[in-house]
Amino acid sequence: DAKKLVRSPSGLRMVPEHRAARSPFGLDEPPWVPDKECPRCMQCDTKFDFITRKHHCRRCGKCFCDKCCSKKVPLPRMCFVDPVRQCAECALVSQKETEFYDKQLKVLMNGATFFVTLGTSDKSELMVCRLSNNQRYLVLDGDSHYEIEIIQISTVQILTEGFTPGGGNTRAIGMILQYKVPGSEEVTQMKFTAGEDFSCSKKLSASWLAAMHKATKLLYESRDQ
User: Fold this and answer.
1) Which of 4, 82, 127, 217 has its Cα between 20 and 30 A from that of 203?
2) Which parts of the sequence belong to the FYVE-type domain (predicted)?
3) In this structure, which topology does domain 3-107 adopt according to CATH?
């Protein structure tokens, strides 16, 4: 997918040439609170003047003094080329998301192996599941081949084991995914189960499921924007 470099008041962004090709995890730039509507810092209530200048957070668009909006943090969900100024609250959120883009996204793209059951079938198929490089499709390869558009996914339920009433660690062993078939209102369900006969790949499967859980949260946030 071709990309282009664009400049906005917030900074330089590398975005897809066509909006339809954007990542399903992406966020749009927020509108900035107009300067005339913001005589004071929206965090500490300091009054703006010639010495105390106002700055806009690139993630939420609110207006702050330099002390409350001094951090420059990467914001890949808005496709910024360089770290951008964010308020303390937004900077914390963006820093947590950095792990997804630096580590978990690569895990999803590298893929993992699962037994996949379609709908109410009692038969499962061993398939390699991965996220496409453009982040827009979940690709499943085995004897069959499926490409599920990420934006069509309606629910993801991670299946775990190991929980005890007294507490204890849980381990992700699979997931149930529901998605809409393009062009219809039909909802299809798939169940993914980590194979017990592939002990060497159990850890990889669990990591992939954890990454998918995080991706789902980002997907829901993008939809709610």
Assistant:
1) 217
2) 35-90
3) Herpes Virus-1 (3.30.40)
Nearest one of 135, 141, 128, 174 to 153, comparing CA atoms: 135
Cα–Cα distance list, 51 to 6, 174, 180, 209 (Å): 31, 56, 55, 50
The answer to whether residues 131 and 105 touch, using CB atoms and an 8 Å cutoff, is yes
For residue 13, the model assigns a pLDDT of 94
Backbone angles phi, psi at 138, to 5 degrees: -95, 115
Domain ranges of the chain: 3-107, 111-224
Give the Cα separation of 182 and 79 in Å (integer).
27
For 128-159, write each residue's pLDDT tens digit: 999 999 999 999 999 999 999 998 999 999 98
The CATH fold assigned to 111-224 is: PH-domain like (2.30.29)
Cβ contacts of 137-140, under 8 Å, gap ≥ 24: 138/177, 140/116
The residues of the chain scoring below 50 in pLDDT are none
CA distances 97 to 31, 89, 104, 126, 130, Å, are 21, 13, 10, 31, 20
Supply 69's token pair: 């909006």
Q: How far apart are CA 53 and CA 185, in angstroms?
A: 51
Nearest alpha-carbon partner for 175 in 200, 148, 136: 148
What is the reported pTM?
0.82
Continuous segment of H or E residues that includes residue 179: strand 171-180
* Per-residue pLDDT at 166: 56
